[in-house]
Amino acid sequence: MSQQGDRPATTDDWWGRLYDESARDTGPAGTPDDTIDDRFDSAADTLGGGDDLPSARTYGHAVDAIAVADDEDDVGDDEDEGVGPATRPPAWWESPGGRPVTRTPAPAPESAPAPAPEPSVPTPAPVAPAPLTPRPRAPWEPPPAAFDPTDPATDPAADPTPPPTPPPTPPPAPPPAAPRDPRAADPRPPAPAPPPPPPAPAPAARISHVGDSPPTYEAEPTALPAADAEELDQLVADTVLDGARYGTYTLRAASLRGDSARYRGEPRRDALLTARFGAGPGALVLVAVATGARATEGAHLSAADACRWIGGAVGRSHSRLAEDIRAGRRGDLKSGLHRLTDRTYGKLRARAAELGRDPEEYTASLRCLLLSADPDCRTRVFFGVGGGGLFRLRDGAWQDLEPLVPEPSAIRGAPVVGYGSVPTGAGAATEQTPDGDRLTMDLEITKAPGPLVEEPVPPPPEPFRFRASVARPGDTLLLTSVGLAEPLRGVPALGDELAARWADGEPPGLATYLADVALRAKGYADDRTAVGVWEA
Q: For domain 217-402+461-535, is the CATH number 3.60.40.10?
């Protein structure tokens, strides 16, 4: 132990040099940046030989972390002072034994690794001799740009020194072009896309009636027919819709209640039957349309019976009928269908007798179409009894195909022998006795005179109608009941409108076809039934 006034035994008289009167004042720094490095540099300058003392940045990880936490604006520019972490010798307190340790300066690396990109939150710097931690961003400096592999300015391996001024904001990028086929060999840019086509004109609004004014009745049903709890099977629907496609034709069929019946709550008097008998090319399609007598009770029942009985008769003979249609035997078809129709009306008269009604009350008009399912057969057969219509749309114009029937007043002929006829001519004297009794020509047997008819003879029944025609591609055949046949013949605008709607030759859908059939005309409020056949 030394006495007062004696010098210590060591040669490192740093204590005296620190408190010597010739040393500079180590008071507060003149700048606001008062960090550990600044204080150490001040102490080193006071002792002299600052180049021989280590920097505060070499103390280790803990000292550097404290410096960053104390002041985020610490620049720490040691390179400007000429002191680097690789050339400064370690201090005595860095040695484990507490004594100075002499180190050989390590050579400077050829290329220092690039610092890592600046994190958003300050993190401790790596232990020496790792590269220096980038300084925190000052408030007046712009934020660093996000890393972009195609932009060298954002590469972490580039020079970390920020440019003096931020780069100008690039203009917005144009929209990406259409992808180019990599197999294309033409390096020229693709041709500009053609301008879009002009918008198609809006379709014309579909009218609901023809003529100068709308019909009196409403277009939609308003009242239902009366029902009987014990005879619910006798009810008929307001509208029936059906369709099919066979061979070269498309079938559409619709039957709807008239405006008058909808208003009064009366049942639909028209009946519609669509049936297929057989299969394959030998199949036969029957469409039957019947209309009950006007202003009679149970008219819808007689129409339904007529359709059901003619359908049964055709179904039992469909093989022979289909063969005759494909072979074109019109004579056989006419006679055979005439017999089937007579049997149907015979059943109607028998049914009227069962109900205790007159045959004229329990009857119906009947019109039918026979269509073969064979694609090679284009013969279309129509037959029936009573009123209605048969039309064909060809080349945009309507043709009335209704078979001509002579008027009853135009029928001429001698009365049937034996019913009051008086023969004239040379053989008159030989056919009767002097008393006026008529004799047979061969047996000379006296025959009683004919019965005396007091009441007028009832009019003859409706004649049988038959027609067979060959369809052409693009034709439209239309079979209608009286409720649509009359306005088609009496209002030309109705036919013109339907011809315009069906001019393209394509069969309409079921809903569209129903709307076409329901096209109204003032003064015609009966039930409507229509069967359309579109030829491909």
A: yes
